[in-house]
Write a structure and sequence with these properties.
It is built from 17 helices and 13 strands. The protein is of the alpha/beta class and about 375 residues long. The chain folds into two domains: about 180 residues, Glycogen Phosphorylase B (Rossmann fold), CATH 3.40.50; about 200 residues, 3-Layer(aba) Sandwich (Rossmann fold), CATH 3.40.50.
């Protein structure tokens, strides 16, 4: 296939999608070295060669209440982006996650004759299962990260390909604790607790105070604690620093990292993680964790009504049962979270059992994802070029 004039549109809406998109761009370039990539992406996709038309941060909005507040701006941006993409005449569009934004964009592009791939299935198996009809109308193919998703789409006639999860390719299967602690100059006897309150500014505003209050309680119960807090950018760091000040937590043995979430998890004995991709990353690093999440009250009520599974964390979903605690909304109090983390730190039997369970999940998800995804979309490109 000639890639001399080939243009591929892509849109990612947050840090995890930026990572997925960057790896896919790199894999596609091995097959199509002259291809041009245009759309919306973060720093990783831009470094891989994406020409971005709008800041990715504008899409990083979670929860119904927050989306409603930003809705007019998001609709305007989606309309402008669709027009810009149609002007660029792409042979393929790949929406990377961000379904609330991407599915509407994809539907418009598909109606205009552009082949469309959606990379990362929305969580139709957990909530809002009715969206599968909208997905079928909006896309030509879905690339799924988890093995059970492929059959769900094929059952309703949507082309789907399981490609594995890229984190399973990136994270070694061997234990990284000692080497990461040496790299970060952390003494072996310290009890290290990773705090991951989220990558979005909206998440930090809901989670930061609770995570800090939890750390203060836990610091009173264990010897030589060290809290590692990876934050993705200057804005989220400022939100967390303001919360430290509000909670009189300047004396906490706490180190903020610029990024380096994987290092924080790898070095940790236990992690407190806002629900999302970070929970899977913790599982692949074989770490015990407590999952916590809070959002706007209106968003929480709507999500509770549309939920199908008894759990929201990816480790529990993949295991098919509660293997790690989930403390959500009103249950996510500092007292409850501190007790759950203390239990995880001190129960060696549960820790060993978790490590074995997470090792099985790691092997299932390790598939050379970026290459599998690239090979899955090449036939669509070939037909478009033909």
């Amino acid at each position: 296939m000639s890639a001399r004039q080939l243009t591929i549109g892509m849109v990612a809406g947050e840090a995890s999608g930026d990572l997925l998109g960057a790896h896919l761009i790199a894999a596609l370039r091995t097959h199509l070295p002259g291809a041009r990539f245009i759309g919306i992406g973060g720093p990783k996709m831009q470094s891989a060669g994406l020409a971005t038309l709008f800041p990715m941060e504008r899409l990083a909005v979670r929860g119904y209440a927050e989306v409603l507040r930003h809705y007019p701006g998001l609709v305007w941006m989606r309309r402008k982006l669709r027009l810009a993409l149609l002007e660029a005449q792409p042979q393929l569009f790949i929406g990377v996650d961000a379904p609330d934004f991407n599915l509407g964009l994809e539907a418009g592009l598909k109606r205009a004759g552009v082949p469309v791939v959606h990379y990362v299935s929305p969580s139709i198996w957990a909530w809002r299962g009715g969206r599968i009809a909208a997905i079928a109308r909006s896309v030509d193919q879905v690339l799924t990260l988890f093995p059970f998703e492929e059959a769900i789409y094929r059952k309703v006639g949507v082309a789907a390909t399981y490609v594995g999860h890229p984190l399973a390719d990136l994270i070694p299967q061997q234990d990284q604790t000692a080497s990461t602690r040496a790299q970060l100059k952390i003494a072996p006897q310290r009890k290290v607790i990773a705090l991951l309150p989220g990558s979005r500014q909206s998440e930090l505003r809901y989670m930061a105070d609770t995570f800090i209050a939890t750390a203060k309680l836990l610091a009173q119960r264990i010897e030589q604690p060290l809290f590692l807090v990876p934050l993705v950018n200057r804005e989220t760091r400022e939100i967390f620093e303001a919360a430290l000040h509000r909670n009189n937590a300047a004396e906490l043995p706490l180190t903020m990292l610029f990024g380096h979430a994987r290092d924080a998890l790898a070095a940790a004995d236990v992690a407190l993680v806002a629900s999302g991709t970070a929970t899977l990353e913790a599982a692949l690093l074989k770490k015990p964790m407590v999952i916590a999440y809070k959002m706007a009250a209106a968003s929480w009520l709507l999500m509770r009504r549309m939920g199908y599974l008894p759990y929201i964390g990816l480790p529990n979903i993949l295991a098919g049962e509660f293997v790690v605690p989930e403390l959500l909304q009103h249950d996510a109090t500092p007292e409850n979270l501190a007790q759950a983390l203390h239990n995880a730190l001190n129960d060696s039997v549960v820790r060993a059992r978790l490590a074995q369970r997470f090792a099985v999940i790691h092997r299932q998800l390790k598939c050379d994802t970026a290459e599998q995804a690239a090979r899955a979309v090449l036939p669509l490109l070939a037909r478009a070029v033909a």
